[in-house]
Amino acid sequence: MEGPRAPAPSEYPEIVNFLDKSLRPDKKWSIVSEYPTALSQVNLNNIRIIKDNGEVLSHAVLKPLIVKTPVAVFKAGAIGSVVTNSSYRSQGLSKQIIDECLDEAQKQDCDFAILWTNLYDFYRKFGFELTGNEISIIVENELSLPAPSNLIFREGSNVDPAAIYKLYSRHTVCTVRTVEDIRNFLKIPNARIYTAWDSQGALAAYAIEGKGVDLDGYIHEWGGGVSEVVQLTQHIYKTQQRPITLIAPIHSVSLIEKFRSFGCMIHEGHLGMIKILKTEALFSKITRHARNDHGMADFVLEKVGDEFHIGTTQSSYKTSSEREVVSFLFGPSRPSDIHKFEQKTADKLNQIFPLRLWFWGWDSI
Ligand SMILES: CC(C)(COP(=O)(O)OP(=O)(O)OC[C@H]1O[C@@H](n2cnc3c(N)ncnc32)[C@H](O)[C@@H]1OP(=O)(O)O)[C@@H](O)C(=O)NCCC(=O)NCCS
Fold first, then answer.
1. How far apart, in whole angstroms, are the C-alpha atoms of residue 82 and residue 86?
2. Residue 222: which of 255, 200, 253, 189 has the closest Cα?
3. Which CATH number among 3.40.630.30, 3.20.20.70, 3.30.70.3550, 3.90.420.10 corresponds to the domain 2-110?
4. Residue nearest atom 18 of ligand 1, based on CA coordinates
5. Is residue 208 classed as helix, strand or coil in its secondary structure?
6. Which residue's CA is the nearest one to ligand 1's atom 43?
7. What 8-state DSSP symbol labels residue 45?
8. Which CATH number does 134-269 carry?
9. 87 CB less than 6 Å from ligand 1?
10. How far is the CA of 82 from the centre of ligand 1 (A)?
11. Low pLDDT (below 70) residues in the chain
12. Cβ neighbours, 10 Å, residue 102
């Protein structure tokens, strides 16, 4: 067996073939069209494979993402398309591949790795923990909007990606994308692209429902003003005549409250599974934010020997579990729910944690 290693450019077609056969056996499209940035040839150096007798046996891809947040700019290593040929499973191949992806992410200075999965126990073995917040807003009845909409709604991918980019860039938490990335995302199969236009012909809101085999019935990308997004969601519900779930970060407070006021069900879930990679770099970004933006001169977030200390010089939470640190930083619980801090410390920590972190649907791999 050879690998884990990055593939040569000439191996790209056989990797795509392996992934399509393993992960999209009944689909008319290639998995590459669902993940156009992660599985593109440009990202080949971040793919890891194991081969034997010229045959690809195991694969995973790393996609480094820069995430802008009010706390700091983070670098995340998203890992996806983890798969081993069914005849070669339980021989440790995926373990080797994932370890390699984590090494590579660390070499590229990713603060943490993230993945989206339901194999929680499998990934816990690598130190990943289920964390973060994801709010699901279920629209299953017509909303009683105060007035008829004066927006014009359209469906279809024939939208200027620069117009979407402009609205996307207004999000307080989002990954750095190019207009070209958005142009490629707009071509993802089995995705319905809805847009709302104002009377001047400017894009007022967008919402994307579905993404390849995933997220059918889910609006996983949206942008625009609260009122416009609500009206567009109502339009999607009326057009599709089925329950529609809009997923949103917990910090989209006005939008969530607006839907709640219409009687929509709101569910809280996790964002994904995260593993810290660059402890020192991550801690120093957060510490800078606590000290500079919250005036917490006594803020403590450090690793002392094998133990992590989080809190203030007066009152701190100590743990030797990296997974507990992930939960503390990214939630969903609040610091005061995790540890009995003295009140002043709890109040300050609750302002900072959980950190505002979010990945829009097009980034999930
Ligand atoms: C999940 C998958 C990638 C594992 O590949 P693999 O090469 O068999 O994995 P490994 O042999 O490296 O397993 C590593 C460890 O995880 C365990 N493991 C494997 N599959 C698991 C699962 N589904 N749930 C929990 N643990 C699992 C193994 O027992 C092993 O544990 P050990 O080291 O304590 O013995 C493989 O089953 C697969 O391709 N599944 C279909 C695609 C898929 O679901 N991918 C995951 C998408 S997020």
1. 12
2. 255
3. 3.40.630.30
4. 122
5. strand
6. 83
7. G
8. 3.40.630.30
9. no
10. 9
11. none
12. 21
Please give the pLDDT value at position 89: 98
Distance (Å, whole) CA 224 – CA 38: 26
Q: How far is the CA of 122 from the centre of ligand 1 (A)?
A: 6
Cβ(21) – ligand 1 distance below 6 Å: no
Locate 135 and state its tokens.
């709010």
Identify the pLDDT of residue 19: 98
The two beta strands, 244-248 and 214-224, are: parallel
Q: How far apart are CA 264 and CA 37, in angstroms?
A: 34
Please tell me whether the overall predicted TM-score, pTM, comes out greater than 0.85 for this model.
Answer: yes
Taken as a whole, the chain contains a residue count of 365
**pLDDT, tens only, 183-227:** 999 999 999 999 999 999 999 999 999 999 999 999 999 999 999
Q: Ligand 1 centroid to 25 CA: how many Å?
A: 19
Give ∠ CA 364-260-330 in degrees, rounded to 5.
Answer: 40
State the pLDDT at residue 316. Answer: 95
